[in-house]
Specification:
single chain, 172 residues, alpha/beta, five-stranded parallel beta sheet, binds 5-O-phosphono-beta-D-ribofuranose
């Protein structure tokens, strides 16, 4: 079996329903990945070990999701030269704005490519786009995905223009 190219990590198992969307995208693009829990605050030594050994283990991109005081993506980015894609997880108290700002507002020199709140699906797609610059077979799958997105919308355009708003929306 090929070793994983993308590592998906998250601060808690409560992040899993969102972060699994990144895995689903990577699986559908045929990108070998691994997924696990690494908490910046509760398992700090594990985080340091994961980030500092990631490249040696063959990972090329890390997708990191966290909520609240979401330090995982930034701290991992500080420990590795691999690109880190951050996913702010929606929180109960502040709707994920806390997570978004914690991940996006990185100091100069330590970037994290920050997705939208709960944007794990886009994290998976962005990882494939980055890998596509090196692996042509992944780039071809990304291009096909984009064409499918376009044709899905164009189908709706034709239906809307043909049927009008009322019928399109199923109004009586
Ligand atoms: C963060 O705290 C995790 O990423 C999670 O989003 C949040 C809450 O964690 P749990 O209390 O659900 O384990 O570290």
């Amino acid at each position: 079996m090929n070793s994983p190219l993308v590592g998906i990590i998250m601060g808690s198992d409560s992040d899993l329903p969102v972060m699994n969307q990144a895995k689903e995208i990577l699986d559908s693009f045929g990108v070998v990945n691994e997924i696990t829990i690494v908490s910046a605050h509760r398992t700090t030594k594990r985080m340091v070990h994961y980030a500092t050994t990631a490249k040696k283990r063959g990972l090329e991109i890390i997708i990191a999701g966290a909520g609240g005081a979401a330090h995982l993506p930034g701290m991992v980015a500080s420990l590795t030269a691999l690109p880190v894609i951050g996913v702010p997880i929606k929180t109960k108290s502040l709707d994920g704005l806390d997570s978004l700002l914690s991940i996006a507002q990185m100091p100069p020199g330590v970037p994290v490519a920050t997705m939208a709140i709960n944007g794990a699906r886009n994290a998976g797609i962005l990882a494939c786009q980055i890998l596509g610059t090196k692996y042509s077979e992944i780039a071809i799958r990304v291009e096909k995905y984009k064409r499918e997105l376009e044709s899905g919308v164009l189908k709706k355009v034709r239906k809307l223009e043909k049927s009008g708003v009322g019928r399109y929306m199923g109004m009586p």
